[in-house]
Amino acid sequence: MRLVLLGPPGAGKGTQSRRLQNTYNILQLSTGDMLRAEVSSGSELGRKVAEIMDAGKLVSDELIIKMISRRIELDDCKNGFILDGFPRTTPQAEALDKVLSEKNMRLDHVIELMADDEAMVKRITGRYSCTNCGAGYHDAYQQPNNAGTCDKCGGTDFIRRADDTAETVRSRLLAYHKQTAPIVTYYGEKGMLKSIDGMADIDEVTKKLKEIIG
Ligand code: AP5
């Protein structure tokens, strides 16, 4: 099973991908997480990428396409994957079609999570995650059962993303509308797109996704 989850920053792509990967035994591939790993490595490339991400702009198509093409060839993708945050531009969508057809693969579903910009600023600026296991939480919408302790691993250290300030979120939303929204049309014209309401609560969105995926 190969899926693409589309949607603006904060729409719930990461939250839902983490749930779906367990249900369907397929891997979440988040280009944002891959780039953050590069930044954490302290490499020269990581320093350049950090500047772009902190400004809320998109990293070059060339780099991202190379990164994903290599990643989907690895053994742990054999059962399938969920692309979270990729493709994000028309050249990336075209490159994905090419790479998949060269590998005799195809996408099963492209699903858009529709969401309102202002609500996304609130979602993102309230988001944090467990430093140890990466489990995601939110100041208002998704708190740990015991305040200050991760439900999944018991960790007590949490982190917020450097690009989760209100100002950067607004730049990321602009980039989404300008550069990513056209690929919603791209997949729509191919008859591959399904759209669902990303403003519904988290469990409801998961339910709708599962109805589409089957
Ligand atoms: P990336 O990491 O992909 O960030 P993003 O697309 O901006 O999306 P987010 O991770 O912020 O949001 P999400 O939709 O996953 O929401 P989440 O589930 O966390 O990219 C970061 C940067 O990397 C980009 O700006 C760019 O620079 C670069 N980059 C990455 N990919 C690239 C590419 N392909 N090309 C070029 N550059 C690239 O949810 C948010 C919060 O809301 C959470 O706290 C969650 O608990 C809560 N929440 C989720 N769903 C709901 C709900 N239904 N109701 C209430 N709360 C909810």
If you had to describe this structure to a student in words, what would you say it looks like?
With 214 residues, this protein is α/β, with parallel strands linked by helices. Helices cover 48% and strands 15% of the residues. It has helices spanning 13-24, 31-41, 44-54, 61-71, 90-102, 117-125, 166-189, 202-213; strands at 2-6, 27-30, 81-84, 109-114, 127-130, 136-138, 158-159, 193-197. The strands form two sheets. The protein has a five-stranded parallel sheet, sandwiched between helices. A three-stranded antiparallel sheet has the order 6-5-7. A hairpin with a 5-residue loop joins strand 5 (127-130) and strand 6. Helix 6 crosses helix 7. The longest helix is centred in the C-terminal third of the chain and has 24 residues, at 166-189. It is globular. The N and C termini lie close together (11 Å). 29% of the residues are buried. BIS(adenosine)-5'-pentaphosphate (AP5) is lined by residues 7, 9-15, 30-32, 35, 52-53, 56-59, 64, 85-86, 88, 92, 123-124, 127, 136, 138, 141-142, 163, 172, 201-202, 205. BIS(adenosine)-5'-pentaphosphate is lined by residues 7, 9-15, 30-32, 35, 52-53, 56-59, 64, 85-86, 88, 92, 123-124, 127, 136, 138, 141-142, 163, 172, 201-202, 205.
